[in-house]
Amino acid sequence: MKPIIKVDRVKSVEEAVELESLGVDIVSISLGEDVRFDDNRQVSENLACEIRKSLSSSKACCQLALNEESLSFIKDYNFDLIQLLEFELHSIDRHFLKEDEVRIIYSGITASHDDAPSWIFSSFENEDCLNASYFHLDLLADLENSWSFLKHECPKYSDTLQISDINNLASQYPILIGLNPSIEAIQDCLNIVPNICGINFTLASEPINNNVHWLDYSSLINILQALRSGS
Predict the structure, then answer these.
(1) Domain limits for position 167
(2) 32-41, 90-99, 121-130: range with lowest mean pLDDT
(3) Four-point Cα dihedral 71, 83, 132, 221, nearest 10
(4) Fewest 10 Å CB contacts: which of 46, 113, 144, 219?
(5) CA 227 → CA 7, 16, 29, 58, 83, distances in Å?
(6) What per-residue confidence (pLDDT) applies to 77?
(7) How many separate domains does the chain show?
(8) CA 23, CA 13: separation in Å to the nearest integer?
């Protein structure tokens, strides 16, 4: 099965159209403030609508602070998905969303090298009606070369997170992985963690801290072109 490719924080119609042409499956925009970044990738409702209208095959996802008005906005403009940071888990009526066939992507989920696998998704275990399409899991986001560390260093220690742990979690949850954005790491991850659904990219230029994987737009285009060509 072809891996899902999702891109967060798309900020223009031009970006959305180009990303769709390069095979991106989910184009996500940010209406609400994302405290992890200090840049200009938050868009207005008018621009969000234009981006939504520009897509023909990619699904449209919207990250926003949820309230009655924003839910109406999502329904009126036919967004396929909404994205919630994990800490917003209890802030909405997920039954209401399910009735309106709006699915959720949960993000803001991280895994460090010393995390117990059972802890990573513990916030979701006893939740009713998650209505989840995917969970965006950022792997070892505090490390620049996270995939290499997970693959080569973690196996040296029995009490650290292992690739097999991620694969086991992905058999229980539909996971999109975020990792250091290099074509080699991404291809290797897709090859040896077969249970994941795909890869999540986060566009940014000014992260507040180093605890999130991100890349700039030109780097993303290079990676997508390489993935498409199979190189």
Answers:
(1) 4-229
(2) 90-99
(3) 140
(4) 46
(5) 14, 18, 22, 17, 25
(6) 82
(7) 1
(8) 16
User: Which DSSP category does 194 fall into?
Assistant: T
Where do we find the tokens 């229980």?
172
| Collapsed DSSP state (helix, strand, coil) of residue 120 | helix
Q: What is the CATH number of the domain that holds 153?
A: 3.20.20.70
pLDDT of residue 91: 59
Q: Copy the structure tokens of residue 65.
A: 């602070």
The closest alpha carbon to 58, from 111, 22, 105, 93, belongs to: 22
Alpha-carbon Rg for the chain, nearest whole angstrom, is 17
* Pairwise CA distance, residues 48 & 42, whole Å: 10
Q: Which two tokens stand for residue 223?
A: 């990676």
**How far, in Å, are 85, 125, 130, 132, 222 from residue 89 at the CA level?**
7, 12, 9, 11, 34
pLDDT in tens, 96-155: 666 667 788 999 899 999 999 999 999 888 877 788 899 999 999 988 889 999 999 999
